[in-house]
Amino acid sequence: MSLHRGSQKRFYDEELSYVVTVNTGKKLPFFKERTFCDLWIEELRLCKKLKKFELYGFCLSYDHFHVMLNPREANVSEVIRSFKTNFSRNANRILGFFEMINKKGVLVKARSRDLAFRALDDFEIVKNLRKKFIRKYGKDHDFPKFKWQKSFHDHFLRGEQDFQNQLNYVIYNYTKHNLPKIWEYTSLNFPELLDEA
C-alpha cells in the first residue's frame, strides 16, 4: 500500500486490475462537446502507448469517465495522473488558454491566436480540434478553463465475477446517464484500444 499526503489510501500491486472513476471539476459537463470527447479518446490512446497499461473497457459521460485497466509497468496513480495532466493541458489549448514560458523564464498566461498556433504546432490532433472548436464557438466562447476534480475513485477487482460485473457496469455506463442511445464514447466502439483480460 502506498500513501500520499492529502490523498486516499491506495493499494498497489502489479497483478491487480482496477476500475477508476474521474470527474470533471465541479462536475461541469465538458463532454457534451464532442471536440473534448475526441480529444479524450486520443489522449487515452497516447497514454496507453506511453504507460503500457492494459485496457479492458471504458465509458466517457458528460462530466466523468470510467476506465477498467491493469497498470502493469506503472501504478494506477501514475497512469491517471499522466492522463489527467495531458488531457487538461490540451483541452485548455483547444479552449485558447495557454501557459507559456517567456524569454525571461516567467510563466505567462495568454489567450491569443498567435500564441495558440505556436503552442499547438507540436501536436497536430490538438491543432485540428482547436480549429474545429473555433469554427463552432469562435474565440470569445463562454467555456471556462478545463479542470479535473482532485484525485479519483478506484476499485481493485476481486476475481472473475467482479471483473465481469464491473466490465458490464463500465461499458454500459452511458445508459444510466441519459446519454444518446447510440453513444459513441464507450469501449464498445473502440475494440482496437482493448486488451484481452
The averaged pLDDT comes out at 86
Low-confidence stretches: 1-6, 111-121
Q: In the residues, how many domains can be counted?
A: 1
Alpha carbon gyration radius = 18 Å
Counting helices, strands and paired strands, the structural category is alpha+beta
The 3D shape can be described as globular
The helicity comes to: 25-40%
CATH topology: Alpha-Beta Plaits
Strand content is 15-25%
Short summary:
By secondary structure, the chain is α+β, with helices and mostly antiparallel strands.
Structural features, described:
This protein is an alpha+beta fold and 197 residues long. It is built from five helices and six strands. The chain has a four-stranded antiparallel beta sheet, sandwiched between helices. It has a two-stranded antiparallel sheet with strand order 4-5. A hairpin with a 3-residue loop joins strand 2 and strand 3 (64-70). Helix 1 (34-51) packs antiparallel against helix 2, helix 1 (34-51) runs antiparallel to helix 4 and helix 2 (76-95) crosses helix 4 (124-137). 30% of the residues are buried. The model is unreliable at 1-6 and 111-121 (pLDDT under 50).
What key attributes describe this structure?
single chain, 197 residues, alpha+beta, Alpha-Beta Plaits, four-stranded antiparallel β-sheet, two-stranded antiparallel sheet, 5 helices, 37% helix
